[in-house]
Amino acid sequence: MKRILLVFILAAAVMYGILHGNLWRNNFYWLPPTAVERRNALDTCLLKPAFESLLGIPCRRCVVVGNGGVLRNKTLGEKIDSYDVIIRMNNGPVIGYEEDVGRRTTFRLSYPESIFSDPIHYDPNTTVVLIVFKPRDLKWLWEILGGQKISAKGFWKKPALNMIYKSSQIRILDPSITRKTAYEWLHFPARFPKKEKPKHPTTGLIAITLAFHICHEVHLAGFKYDFTDRNSSLHYYGNETMSQMMQNEYHNITAEQKFLKKLIDKNFVVNLT
């Protein structure tokens, strides 16, 4: 058993290196975590990150597009497409919603249970960034890229059973980004009480953390929830309502909304919605 576990760990490490290798050599969009002090959002392009020489452009403006229902009928599509880097998450669709959410996607952050599996959503210009929440996620990636049979055991819902993206489009998110979001931003405890389900940050907040590491200027769209109306739209797509989010025990949405409000109030980010 120990030998099997050791082989799996070594294989995962090799896969991590292979998936990241081409990006480090050829794509300046993905950069190592670097602490960047932020002042007023209007001045962020005057602050040059330590990795400025790798960026290739004088200022990188990024927008993180959430999946919130607040995006409906806002016609922000053209505005969103004007940014240098567009970060989306999970299975928030673009097709059919271009007027409100735009057409371009630079990065799409997902995990096995939330990644697109329908080829209609394939975008050759998108880099898919896998967020690893558990060891089983890495095993899933190994199996799906190797054409092996996918086991749904260990997932909170059925994961994707096929990969629509090329392996060259896939990256694994540095775990320090998730760790920073959970412990430094949201101040989650390292251990939760036995009677309480462990919380983890939403993909959206993790995406914002990533944006702060690779962008001079960060704007947001689609990150507001209406807690006063349980029947209001949860996403800009589909029919799910806020009642589903209120029942979610895996996230602390109230804490995240308070934190986002602080970012906006202090002008660390600009909120388009």
- How many helix segments? 9
Please provide the count of β strands. Answer: 7
CATH class: Alpha Beta
* Integer average pLDDT: 80
Q: Please tell me the total number of domains.
A: 1
Q: What's the CATH H-level superfamily name?
A: Glycosyl transferase family 29
Largest beta sheet: what is the strand line-up? 5-4-3-2-1-6-7
Which terms summarize this structure?
7-stranded parallel beta sheet, 7 strands, alpha/beta, 33% helix, 273 residues
Describe this structure in words.
- The longest helix has 25 residues, at 2-26.
- The chain is of the alpha/beta class.
- The protein has helices at residues 2-26, 52-55, 77-81, 98-101, 135-145, 175-185, 203-214, 242-246, 253-265, and strands at residues 61-65, 85-89, 107-110, 127-130, 170-172, 217-221, 270-271.
- Helix 6 (175-185) crosses helix 7.
- It has a seven-stranded parallel sheet.
- The protein has nine helices and seven strands, in the order ααβαβαββαβααβααβ.
- Mean pLDDT is 80; it is low at 4-10, 13-44 and 50-55.
- The protein has a single domain (2-31, 40-271), classed as sialyltransferase cstii, chain A, CATH 3.90.1480.20.
- Strand 4 (127-130), helix 5 (135-145) and strand 5 form a beta-alpha-beta unit.
- The protein starts with a helix and ends with a strand.
